[in-house]
TrEMBL record:
Protein name, UniProt field: Sodium:solute symporter
PROSITE patterns found in the cross-reference section: NA_SOLUT_SYMP_2, NA_SOLUT_SYMP_3
Keyword Disulfide bond in annotation: no
Membrane topology per record: Multi-pass membrane protein
Protein species of origin: Streptomyces lutosisoli
Length: 487
């Protein structure tokens, strides 16, 4: 294992080095939070694919393939569909808004009264998303070093917190590009063909497994529908995803770069399901589906390659973890704390934006690590995150983009009613039940439409300013220093 350990250590050291480089680059709020809005198509596509394909997509995707066969690809497939829909239909408009958070968009659209409550909901979502990624370190470090669960979470989480705090989005962008390359090589080019060959090829896999393992709809229509509601729609409105859209140098980069990333997700989804199906042939009686990825890597790959593939798993986890962490800190600082600070601020008081955001990343990072240590179930934590996001925020966000009659009162009612419905149904029906997201979304839609129609239309001046933003006729923030465009 010495070679494998060396590969992993070099990889982790590289992540920290890029965090240090990013610290020297991030001199303004725009540089720190959205990489100066300067990413070209190549970097944008790679970093977007990296953030949406995390531990759940890699370890969880292989686990679903182990349990259901090729139809286990549907979870990650719906993530890719969501990213494609976002990129084709909404990303250009989102990029032209020149904001930092989803709640800022709501404030612009509805007139400054919808952001605080939506910020709290978005903060809860990004926090839980970061927690689920951080929990996944335990599985990987257990395979690598037979490490205690708590120690594994603290070690992996601390590295992500360190490079994210140092350089913000510049560090995360650089590390995500490396992580994108590592998991492309490790999962698609190495693990996928080796797993299929070890399992005897597709003909042998079909001979040894039930026919439902090769049924594209074998996982069940209701499950696929729930995945669409949670993940496809979740991709449209998550702060972690929007914050990457904000990094694009132009609306065309956001549209076409995101389309490439979404297509990559579809390929990754199928690869994970095939690897899981091969693992079912090789290890038909594993105690847990979540161990399928680690088992096939540990037992079937040669020395060195094993280390690279485990580094790919770490890359997948770290990219989502760091993206969710900076999103969580951005929402906490810009949408919640800044409003409280604004109410208490004395005239003439100055505030260092970069330092303030660094402090919030550090605070949120510690909170994420502590929460991850306390929780055990990744699926439940991820379900809570997406149920809150879709049930509470999907309607007012898409309504604001698509329906000019929507009002601030309707948006607030939608967030509150949908969020409370989701929380109440999760408490009574169970966290993993389908009812919370179904009825939460319906109640959110009903509240939005009814209250919007019952209240005065949004002020014409607010809508005019909103249309100016959507048209891209608002100048971007001044940059701290000129810099070359990154491709």
């Amino acid at each position: 294992m010495a070679v494998d350990y060396t590969v992993i250590v070099v990889y982790l050291a590289g992540m920290l080095a890029m965090g240090w480089w990013g610290m020297r680059r991030a001199k303004s709020k725009s540089e720190f939070l959205v990489a100066g809005r300067r990413l070209g198509p190549a970097m944008y596509s790679g970093t977007m694919a990296a953030i949406v394909l995390g531990g759940a997509s890699t370890i969880g995707g292989v686990g679903l393939g182990y349990q259901y066969g090729l139809s286990g690809a549907w979870m990650v497939f719906t993530i890719g569909l969501g990213l494609l829909a976002l990129s084709v239909f909404f990303s250009a408009r989102i990029a032209r808004l020149k904001v930092y958070t989803v709640s800022e968009m709501l404030d612009l659209r509805y007139g400054g009264r919808a952001g605080v409550i939506s910020g709290v909901v978005m903060w809860a979502y990004t926090l839980m998303l970061a927690v689920t990624s951080t929990i996944a370190y335990a599985t990987i470090f257990d395979v690598l070093f037979d490490m205690n669960r708590t120690l594994a979470i603290v070690l992996g989480g601390s590295i992500v917190v360190a490079y994210s705090t140092l350089g913000g989005m510049w560090s995360i962008t650089l590390t995500d590009m490396v992580q994108f390359v590592v998991k492309t090589v490790g999962v698609l080019l190495l693990l996928l063909p080796i797993a299929v060959i070890k399992a005897g090829g597709f003909s042998e896999m079909k001979a040894k497994l039930p026919t439902e393992y090769f049924d594209p709809l074998g996982i069940g229509g209701e499950t696929i529908f729930t995945y669409v509601l949670i993940y496809t729609f979740g991709m449209l409105i998550g702060q972690d995803i929007w914050q990457r859209v904000f990094t694009a140098r132009s609306d065309k980069t956001a549209k076409w770069g995101g389309t490439v990333a979404g297509t990559y997700c579809l390929v990754y989804a199928l690869a994970g399901a095939v690897i899981g199906t091969a693992a079912k042939v090789l290890y038909p009686k594993l105690p847990s589906t979540d161990t399928a990825f680690a088992t096939i890597v540990k037992d079937e790959l040669p020395v060195g390659v094993r280390g690279l593939v485990l580094a790919a798993a770490l890359a997948a986890v770290m990219s989502t973890s760091s993206g969710a962490l900076i999103a969580c800190a951005t929402v906490a600082n810009n949408d919640i704390w800044s409003k409280l600070r604004g109410a208490m601020k004395r005239d003439g008081e100055e505030h260092d934006e970069v330092k303030g955001n660094r402090v919030f990343i550090l605070i949120m990072g510690v909170a994420v690590i502590c929460t991850a240590v306390a929780l055990n179930n990744v699926v439940e934590a991820l379900t809570v995150a997406y149920n809150l996001l879709v049930g509470g925020l999907l309607v007012p966000i898409l309504g604001g983009l698509l329906w000019k009659r929507g009002t601030a009162q309707g948006a607030l009612a939608s967030v509150v009613v949908g969020g409370l419905a989701v929380i109440g149904l999760m408490a009574t029906q169970g966290i993993l039940a389908n009812e919370p997201v179904y009825y939460g979304l319906l109640s959110s839609l009903a509240a939005y439409v009814v209250v919007s129609l019952a209240t005065p239309a949004t002020d014409a001046a607010v809508l005019a300013a909103w249309r100016e933003r959507l048209a891209g006729r608002v100048a971007a923030e001044p940059l701290s220093e000129p810099a070359p465009v990154h491709q």
